[in-house]
Amino acid sequence: MPFTTQRKVRFQHCDPAGIVFYPRYYEMLNSVVEDYFAEVVGHDFNRLHVTSRTGVPTARIETDFHAPSRLGETLDFELTIRDVGRTSLAIRTAVHCGGEPRLTCDATLVFVDLDSGRPLPWPEAMRCHFAIES
Amino acid sequence: MPFTTQRKVRFQHCDPAGIVFYPRYYEMLNSVVEDYFAEVVGHDFNRLHVTSRTGVPTARIETDFHAPSRLGETLDFELTIRDVGRTSLAIRTAVHCGGEPRLTCDATLVFVDLDSGRPLPWPEAMRCHFAIES
Amino acid sequence: MPFTTQRKVRFQHCDPAGIVFYPRYYEMLNSVVEDYFAEVVGHDFNRLHVTSRTGVPTARIETDFHAPSRLGETLDFELTIRDVGRTSLAIRTAVHCGGEPRLTCDATLVFVDLDSGRPLPWPEAMRCHFAIES
Amino acid sequence: MPFTTQRKVRFQHCDPAGIVFYPRYYEMLNSVVEDYFAEVVGHDFNRLHVTSRTGVPTARIETDFHAPSRLGETLDFELTIRDVGRTSLAIRTAVHCGGEPRLTCDATLVFVDLDSGRPLPWPEAMRCHFAIES
């Protein structure tokens, strides 16, 4: 089952053309990954970054923007796991508004040690939560 | 010849891991496109958006992050035109620091009428500045 | 009764020192004003800005930061109306975390016509919702 | 002599009303403080935060917004030191565009140990650069 959540398009997300400025989508997308790790994987970003000194930087990201989003709209985010590597995770996030596709984003995250910058194998306690949707 | 410019990694770009938070790269990348339009194409974003009620939203974007960037570093941006369509523009921006690759971003922009949201053919006055690098 | 809402401290809000970068508080504070206008005053920011071509820019703002906020914390926002002028509104927003004060912000908003930039008297339909707390 | 620098109003700073969204001014103001510390005080923010594990969080800030700024404008920032305390620094930043006042911001920064969160006395090497303008 995909992980779903919502975000409201706020004034701070919109540009002089009155639509979401695309870098702001990445703040929303990152916050959805944050929620996924906290609610599904059971590791919030504070524990991940501050306590464990690990991180999940984005190695690759690819986004298709299908239609603009406007101030006040509520966006539906649906995150699915596409692939789990030894140290990486491929996720797809599809964003809709009232059923209309707005953007689709494929990202590859890597689990790293913040101090060395080196990739780490996913701990079993995290890996067991990465359920691949087909 | 590619369009080149620099950006400094500032406090506002960095996350708790001490490296650039990737959505901030897109603010930098967008500002480089802004400079390219103002300095090379001869249409600044104010004229484009406010006076002409046109825009250049991003339809597709694909980024590889090669290595993290840190507070205080100066990044070199190199923008090249990859393809010019009737209403679109494919650009590549390579970002380095001291010769080390940090990220490569391929984006497709579309020229649109802000009021209708419809794609517009590039005006000849703009098109003649899009020199394709091979 | 004050207007209350919550915001979670997310990765995007935090700086290399691991605490909220203060400009991000203003994005949160602005989003709380947005919610207040939508939920209490009955005018969402889309209707205000796009439909009516009016706005509520900030003329003055004064903030005391009492203690830093950290990744993953949930902040309680409490907005009270301090004074209602013919064209202005003085609001105070107090932010706490688990009862501990984090910041107090006094702001003066002005109701303006976006096209002329001129202040406008508050419409009676909005004014009647501005209940002053004492 | 005040410390002066410039910032261009970019697309990323502007809101659906076509003017600078006020939280973005604080990113600019912070970057001016960053330049002041690097160029005048001789301590860049990387050295300050990462190497020395110190920081200069804002304890109090007070801003008057005199007139809106628009996409494409170049803003002149003028930073003056108003007062130097044992552990604090009171600065004023006046922002103009073509001589027209846009905003005036008074801020109090505190020098802190990032690990304990405790205020620290300014090192003499830094303090000697804080020249008070009268």
Descriptive key words:
alpha+beta; 7 strands; 134 residues; Thiol Ester Dehydrase, Chain A; homotetramer; globular; two-stranded antiparallel ribbon; 23% helix
Identify the most extensive interface between protein chains: A-B, 26 and 26 residues
**SSE order of chain A:** EHHEEEEEEH
Oligomer: homotetramer
Structure summary, number of beta strands of chain A: 7
The outline of chain A comes out as: globular
For the largest sheet of chain A, list the strands in their spatial order.
Answer: 1-4-5-6-3
Helix percentage range of chain A: 10-25%
Number of helices of chain A: 3
Sequence stretches where pLDDT stays below 50 over 5 or more residues of chain A? none
CATH superfamily of chain A: Hotdog Thioesterase
CATH architecture of chain A: Roll
Distance between the termini of chain A: 10 Å
Instruction: Report the C-alpha radius of gyration of chain A, rounded.
Output: 15 Å
Averaged pLDDT of chain A: 95
β-strand amount of chain A:
35-45%
CATH topology of chain A: Thiol Ester Dehydrase, Chain A
Can you walk through the features of this model?
The structure is a homotetramer of 134-residue chains. The longest helix of chain A is centred in the first third of the chain and has 20 residues, at 22-41. The first copy, chain A, has helices at 22-41, 45-51, 124-127; strands at residues 3-8, 54-55, 58-65, 74-84, 88-97, 100-110, 112-113. In chain A, 23% of the residues lie in helices and 37% in strands. Chain A has a single domain (3-127), classed as Thiol Ester Dehydrase, Chain A, CATH 3.10.129. Chain A is α+β, with helices and mostly antiparallel strands and 134 residues long. The first copy, chain A, is built from 3 helices and 7 strands. The B-D interface holds B 10-12, 18, 27, 30-31, 34, 38, 44-47, 49-50, 70-72 and D 10-12, 18, 27, 30-31, 34, 38, 44-47, 49-50, 70-72. Chains A, B, C, D: It comes from Billgrantia antri. Chains A, B, C, D: This is Acyl-CoA thioesterase.
